Known about the structure:
Structural class: alpha/beta
Oligomer: single chain
Number of strands: 39
Amino acid sequence: MPRRNDIKSILVLGSGPIVIGQACEFDYSGTQACRVLRSEGYRVILANSNPATIMTDPDFADRTYIEPLTPDFIEKIIEREKPDAVLPTLGGQTALNLAMELFARGKVGVPGTPELIGANAEAIATAEDRGKFKEAMIEIGLSVPRSGIAHTLPEAQKIVKEIGLPVIIRPAYILGGRGTGIAHTPEEFKAVVSNGLAASPISEVLIETSIVGWKEYELEVMRDRNDNCVIICSIENVDAMGVHTGDSITVAPAMTLSDVEYQKMRDAAFACIRRVGVETGGSNVQFAVNPTTGDQVVIEMNPRVSRSSALASKATGFPIAKIAAKLAVGYTLDEISNDITKKTPASFEPTIDYVVVKIPRWAFEKFPGTSGVLGTQMQSVGEAMAIGRTFTESLQKALRSLEIGRFGLNCDPGEENYLALSDEELLNKIAIPTPERIFQIGECLRRKISIEIVAEYCKFDPWFLDQMLTIVEEREFLAERDMGSLTKLEWLRAKRMGFADAQLAWLWKNSEAEVRASRLALGVRPTYKAVDTCSAEFSAQTPYHYSTYEDESEIHASTKESVIILGSGPNRIGQGIEFDYCCVHASFALRDAGFETIMLNCNPETVSTDYDTSDKLFFEPLTLEDVLNVIEAETVSSGVKPKVIVGLGGQTPLKLAARIPADLIAGTNSQSIDIAEDREKWSALCEANSIAQPPGGTARNVDQAVEIANKIGYPVLVRPSYVLGGRAMQIVHDEAQLRKAMQEMDQAGSLGREGGLSAERPVLVDRFLEDAIEVDVDAIRDASSEVLIGGVMEHVEQAGVHSGDSACTIPPVTLSAKIIDEIENTVKKIANALNVIGLINVQFAVTGSTVYVIEANPRASRTVPFVAKATGVQLVKVASRVMLGATLAQLRQEGLLPDRVPGGHVSVKEAVLPFNRFAEVDTALGPEMRSTGEVMGIDDSFARAFAKAQFAAGTTLPESGLVFVSLNDRDKEGGIEVVKGLTSLGLQIAATSGTAKYLTENGCVVTRVVSKFSERKADDKNFDDAVKLIEAGEIVLVINTPRGHGTRSDGEAIRKAANNCRVSVVTTLSAARAAVQGMIEQRNRPFAVKSLQEFHAR
Length: 1098
């Protein structure tokens, strides 16, 4: 069927901020959809609240609305734009749930309203409503685990009496397994069901008999209007059922299914998508298989492009989101050409002759108090993917891609952690799923514990353990040899099993450079194969490559000057989608300028690893060995050395800068990077240029740190070198705390982890500036020494909260013109002193009229996309050209560097925090970054923009009810204004006696005085405290400012209770002030929507 001509305009619903369970994969899928729909001639309207994604750049849609993804705001967009159709299947669970809420309101999917394309409301309900899905599967003869549906706790208890414990509880309409859990006891059952009902938007849970320990599989399915169905990819979880698939190591294609079992699963997936009624597009169907009997059951289905769809797309080269968008507007699979072969249609099922392994990355170190145990709720913040000819090669490449200080399956310094453990202790550890388990299993196999015993404890299929054993056996062989005695064939065998030069260097006690030289002397070099979707049946036209050690390389020679852009690797807190945005923009800008662009990255979720973002894509780990291999391969194939960009992918490529040949680095040189990143050299530069810094000094050991702290006085801020996201930064209030912090950094340094202390990487100890206003500046300097100030951002939260976790605003709202001038002049002075060529980010603290520099980063920062959306200047496109030799003056002449957009709008960026995944974590903010994503609010005043940012971040600003207020002594005076603002809005105030006394003495009305939580007595039922009120559902908002170091038990208990009961919490006075201003604006003048293109009109 040809494309539909009855549709002219389509509203694409984005996925909003990056959160656990919904990350860059929806940026990738949404970007593909917008591009393909526009190329088909449709008018595309995009709604998304995330400024960090390239999708919300004004070039990707005709109208881009950076507005909160709530039904009220989407209704306003529909009323304004009047689209013919709404596409909700490419924006994750957020977009699906939005579509269903709008359908319930009669605003989409009913006659006279925009049509739902991709999946209609009935199909979405059938897949997402656990009860309907179960009935549908039974109706078509597919097996499902024994289960029941409950909407209340009494209903759930009735069901569990029939089924019996243990059970798995699965809420409806949720993301990343939120609210899901396994219950073994009646107490656990009550807690998990209560949590699940609260997590489900329709208060519904499925209670099913536990199938923990079964094998888990996923099939990516596509269907068109003519009922053609294809399987794009089969994916097998290495971890057994009981670990969320987003937290499991996965492998494609499935490794341990017989053909008969696979065909049965394939038929079931087709039957499932047809019965659910997904007319067009991609879906993900999950199965469990009993490892003993082979029985198969259907677990669930996502009637949309999912997290696994991005993995399947990158694993096969089949662009699922792009094809899904075309199917949604009427095309059939046989009408769509395969981009990679150019000879086959999309109705050909991909086949692959290599193995793909994906491994998640977690951030438990950011959340003290978490157990670190993996379960049915997803907790990972990112993932790395590797491609190799065998499972062993892919597994080791994927492990070293994680950037956690590990080089592969052990054979590195990290394995020394296990030496003190007995065999029994190790086996008990592998029975519990944790991020360390894969390495612990490797140690068990090294100790000659049998595969059967290991499998019994960890529930991995024996096939995977046997493959891991071959790695261990090869390591034993290599340990008996030395670098000089290895033959070429023996080298090749080790490399084909994924062994890194760094592993061999550790094993042989040589340097990595010596190992590399010895390997190259024998002519052992990687070859690069193409991802072709068809196992080489047809030639691949798209240069999408992975390394292996074979005879023939499939790289095409470059004919133009080439540039390698080093990506940012797996997502993590502090280094996320913002850096991928920068890499993609650089690729687009440099390609337009006539360069051949080469992307090197290992993150399957991102736009940068889409095969058509750059001229060439290398899906490789971002380690020194792998980067040098690609540089060498490109030099050999083209005869010319490529330039390398290290300044756009965050800290990952920056750490490699000094070890890459200096003449290849494009932009700021490695010496300048080192001066900025090394705390001691940075302090010396500031001193030489009369740039004010907070008093302090650099320390290489505990005693030096204590000496500095005693000299400048507590509290002090401790900051390691070469870190991102404030890793290991702490505010320290006394010597005991300082010694503990330094000891932790020393331990991390010995393991090669980020935030570690070493002789080469000293720690800065400086005076903590309480109540200072923090300021961020992004700027570009060119080779002619001209400095362009991109944006000056004032933070809403005061010093002490990491810049990535603080709200910030453009333009600044409280800084004087004189202070802004001083800040801009200091940025220029620093950029010139560092000889920056490209982007630089400088952070300041302002106390009164004094401006202190905190740090400078001569690279792209996480605020660059936000600045571009706020000002209308594409900083990264400009910076990437500057790095390759253009001047700012030349780029103005070209039209690439316009003036900032005029207009009186204010832009606010707000952080989105993952505390709803970590019930045991205190939600108070500090100097270590913990947010996973961000949102943006744009409006005509700061208060309105801030309020929009709060709505977008999921913070509820209530219009009525009881607000609990608890302020530390320093904040009580400022809290008077906040409380009076709340009561003027009709809200009532509850407070503890000390806060209540102060507020009432200063003219505030406190409706309810409650006792402290720490004074609660177990036998007193009449005792009222904040935690009790929150748990009873009586509190609509909590304002609780922590009391610094010391006794925080009351505040911590209150914040945890609010987090668990999904009550919004504000933990700083400045944010509380801004929130109240926003609430007043909300009452006085209803919010309107306006597109980014209108804000950017010049």
